[in-house]
Specification:
The chain is 45% helix and 22% strand. It is α+β, with helices and mostly antiparallel strands.
Length: 239
């Protein structure tokens, strides 16, 4: 049950050859990914690779003092735990669910076996890794050089791209923690976007009313990263 029921909802899984999906099917576990769930702690060995279908996972770097900042987000376009097939087994990054949903979980040994036997799997995973590295590098630059308003717009757009609809279930405190900025700064930026008629915010719900306006307020980092994902990954329409 659930083995392949929602496989089309994850772009990487949906892009695999049918014969490869059939081989992976017995190893695919359907899992709930509730808000705040930590699926990998920093430095721990990754025993699974996660393929979100409706959840969004934040990749966070945490300092020894406890401060954290998001370096990337992963949703239905990708996978969490790329170090498994890159040979590293672990990363100094915490993987935490920032938008509740579901996804597939695949054992590390099954991922590695597929990576070794299939050129198509290798190609997809390496292209995805290149796209993810582009996101990580531009997130670092964006956090350093751009305003909180631009950070918020980029983050909202990235979240919209990884789920259906125009409603996001996220508090300002959560967004501030992910961006590594003060909550007051996020509140002020959200109020400016709301006054401009771009979003509406109420009790942890954010509705994007004007996507074009949101893109106009975002920095170039969002557009550069999106172009790279579109260039490197197959276009798969989620049902």
């Amino acid at each position: 049950m659930f083995a392949l029921d929602y496989v089309h909802e994850n772009q990487l899984l949906a892009s695999l050859p049918d014969e490869e999906l059939q081989l992976l099917s017995p190893h695919l576990d359907w899992v709930d990914l509730p808000l705040g769930k930590v699926i990998h702690e920093s430095g721990m060995q990754r025993k699974f690779v996660y393929f979100p279908t409706s959840a969004i996972v934040s990749l966070l770097y945490t300092t020894e003092g406890g401060a954290s900042s998001e370096i990337a987000v992963v949703g239905r376009e990708g996978a969490v735990g790329i170090c498994v097939f890159l040979g590293g087994a672990s990363m100094p990054i915490r993987d935490e669910v920032c938008s509740a949903g579901s996804g597939y979980r695949l054992r590390a040994d099954a991922v590695n076996a597929a990576f070794e036997r299939s050129g198509r799997v290798q190609y997809l995973m390496l292209c995805y890794t290149q796209a993810l590295l582009t996101q990580i590098s531009h997130t670092a630059m964006c956090n350093r050089y751009h305003s909180v308003d631009q950070l918020l717009c980029r983050w909202l757009l990235q979240s919209l791209d990884r789920q259906h609809g125009n409603e996001l279930l996220m508090t300002q405190e959560l967004i501030a923690n992910m961006l590594g900025v003060r909550r007051e700064g996020v509140t002020e930026a959200a109020l400016r976007l709301q006054a401009a008629g771009i979003i509406h915010y109420a009790r942890g719900h954010i509705w994007v009313l004007d996507r074009a306006g949101l893109e106009a307020h975002a920095c170039d980092c969002y557009r550069v990263v999106k172009r790279e994902y579109d260039r490197l990954l197959p276009a798969v329409q989620a049902a």
